[in-house]
Amino acid sequence: MPDVLLLPGDGIGAEIVPEAVKALKAVGKRYQIRFRFREALIGGAAYDACGHPLPEETLRLCEESDAILLGAIGGPKWDNLPVELRPEMGALLPLRKKLGLYANIRPALLFPALIEASPLKPEIVSGMDLVVVRELTGGLYFGTKKREFVDNGDEQAIDTLVYRTGEIERIGRLAFQMARKRRKKVTSVDKANVLESSRLWRDVITGLGREYPDVQLEHMYVDNCSMQLVRRPTQFDVIVTENTFGDILTDEASILTGSIGMLASASIGGKVALYEPAHGSAPDIAGQQKANPLATILSAALMLRLSFGMEEGAQAIEAAVRQVLDEGYRTADIMQPGKRQVTTAAMGDLVADRI
Ligand code: NAI
Ligand code: MG
């Protein structure tokens, strides 16, 4: 029995997570799988209840579960707490680190029904279906940082960009394996014309490529990649890149699909993986049944695919989402003239029903 830990968190988290649970239950019913759902506190909700955004009990339940579904955390109410107690810094980052989640998988898939919602011209964005595999626990964000004064009295700040072969290899393998299940193309993005860490990155990925002769490998400089993404996004299948480049490119890729409320993500690499929508707790619309639950529902599909090897179940969710959009149902963020606007819960019910 797959054991799923639910961490609704703050703001719209409490509204969107139950909609993803409906989808998982519908898959369970269709394929005779019984999920066990447990729930724990995280973020501001946890701080309010017990004085810390990542309680010991929550961490223990995370480590014991087979997969984690997170809503979103944070909000203005907790912004002025000391840094170690703020939901993002005190809970989300430590949780990812403690669970060893070194890979962030972010599929940017354009549903045909939402083609008008993309900022790109329909003929350019049509058919876009790519996934960015971002290294999540190395690089600039985790390198040694320092500030110091130099001879002439200037202050200087130093960030260090470090990558080891082992770190590059494990994320690279994941990208090749993912490409094998897709359109068999990996684009490795670096800045090997300038950065030594990128030269190592390119060497390691090139070596790995020989183990995956069935997958087409291309290397691309990050500046070119950022341009190619808006020029012809359909050329990409799997993009693999280091932490900072991935941070920037995933934001760029995400908006091409129409709304932040559509974007699922998976953070994997440890014993247990964490699935969450790419957006935050949206305090401006929380409690109003306006939030788009599809990013969370699509994150549940990723869970089925990546944690439980249930490709059929994942596809059933994705097909249901596509169908509901094709039928013209929209939450407020993706509402277009002539379509039918529905609440968060109604959207969840529709998807579960179509599954
Ligand atoms: P946000 O993603 O929460 O909201 C940005 C805009 O997008 C808002 O107008 C919001 O209404 C809209 N939006 C977001 N998700 C939506 C959905 N599912 N359906 C419809 N509209 C949606 O980002 P913002 O406002 O910068 O941050 C709000 C809080 O969330 C902050 O405390 C921030 O730190 C936190 N946050 C948490 C994340 C996480 O838990 N992983 C990630 C990003 C932000
Ligand atoms: Mg970012």
Automatic annotation (TrEMBL):
<feature type="binding site">
    <location>
        <position position="247"/>
    </location>
    <ligand>
        <name>Mg(2+)</name>
    </ligand>
</feature>
<dbReference type="InterPro" id="IPR024084">
    <property type="entry name" value="IsoPropMal-DH-like_dom"/>
</dbReference>
<feature type="domain" description="Isopropylmalate dehydrogenase-like">
    <location>
        <begin position="3"/>
        <end position="351"/>
    </location>
</feature>
<feature type="binding site">
    <location>
        <position position="223"/>
    </location>
    <ligand>
        <name>substrate</name>
    </ligand>
</feature>
<feature type="site" description="Important for catalysis">
    <location>
        <position position="191"/>
    </location>
</feature>
<feature type="binding site">
    <location>
        <position position="223"/>
    </location>
    <ligand>
        <name>Mg(2+)</name>
    </ligand>
</feature>
<feature type="binding site">
    <location>
        <position position="106"/>
    </location>
    <ligand>
        <name>substrate</name>
    </ligand>
</feature>
<protein>
    <recommendedName>
        <fullName>3-isopropylmalate dehydrogenase</fullName>
        <ecNumber>1.1.1.85</ecNumber>
    </recommendedName>
</protein>
<feature type="binding site">
    <location>
        <begin position="75"/>
        <end position="88"/>
    </location>
    <ligand>
        <name>NAD(+)</name>
    </ligand>
</feature>
<comment type="similarity">
    <text>Belongs to the isocitrate and isopropylmalate dehydrogenases family. LeuB type 1 subfamily.</text>
</comment>
<keyword id="KW-0963">Cytoplasm</keyword>
<dbReference type="GO" id="GO:0000287">
    <property type="term" value="F:magnesium ion binding"/>
</dbReference>
<keyword id="KW-0460">Magnesium</keyword>
<feature type="binding site">
    <location>
        <position position="96"/>
    </location>
    <ligand>
        <name>substrate</name>
    </ligand>
</feature>
<keyword id="KW-0432">Leucine biosynthesis</keyword>
<feature type="site" description="Important for catalysis">
    <location>
        <position position="141"/>
    </location>
</feature>
<feature type="binding site">
    <location>
        <begin position="280"/>
        <end position="292"/>
    </location>
    <ligand>
        <name>NAD(+)</name>
    </ligand>
</feature>
<dbReference type="InterPro" id="IPR019818">
    <property type="entry name" value="IsoCit/isopropylmalate_DH_CS"/>
</dbReference>
<keyword id="KW-0560">Oxidoreductase</keyword>
<dbReference type="Pfam" id="PF00180">
    <property type="entry name" value="Iso_dh"/>
</dbReference>
<comment type="function">
    <text>Catalyzes the oxidation of 3-carboxy-2-hydroxy-4-methylpentanoate (3-isopropylmalate) to 3-carboxy-4-methyl-2-oxopentanoate. The product decarboxylates to 4-methyl-2 oxopentanoate.</text>
</comment>
<keyword id="KW-0028">Amino-acid biosynthesis</keyword>
<keyword id="KW-0520">NAD</keyword>
<dbReference type="GO" id="GO:0009098">
    <property type="term" value="P:L-leucine biosynthetic process"/>
</dbReference>
<dbReference type="GO" id="GO:0005829">
    <property type="term" value="C:cytosol"/>
</dbReference>
<keyword id="KW-0464">Manganese</keyword>
<comment type="subunit">
    <text>Homodimer.</text>
</comment>
<keyword id="KW-0479">Metal-binding</keyword>
<comment type="pathway">
    <text>Amino-acid biosynthesis; L-leucine biosynthesis; L-leucine from 3-methyl-2-oxobutanoate: step 3/4.</text>
</comment>
<dbReference type="GO" id="GO:0003862">
    <property type="term" value="F:3-isopropylmalate dehydrogenase activity"/>
</dbReference>
<dbReference type="InterPro" id="IPR004429">
    <property type="entry name" value="Isopropylmalate_DH"/>
</dbReference>
<dbReference type="GO" id="GO:0051287">
    <property type="term" value="F:NAD binding"/>
</dbReference>
<feature type="binding site">
    <location>
        <position position="251"/>
    </location>
    <ligand>
        <name>Mg(2+)</name>
    </ligand>
</feature>
<keyword id="KW-0100">Branched-chain amino acid biosynthesis</keyword>
<feature type="binding site">
    <location>
        <position position="134"/>
    </location>
    <ligand>
        <name>substrate</name>
    </ligand>
</feature>
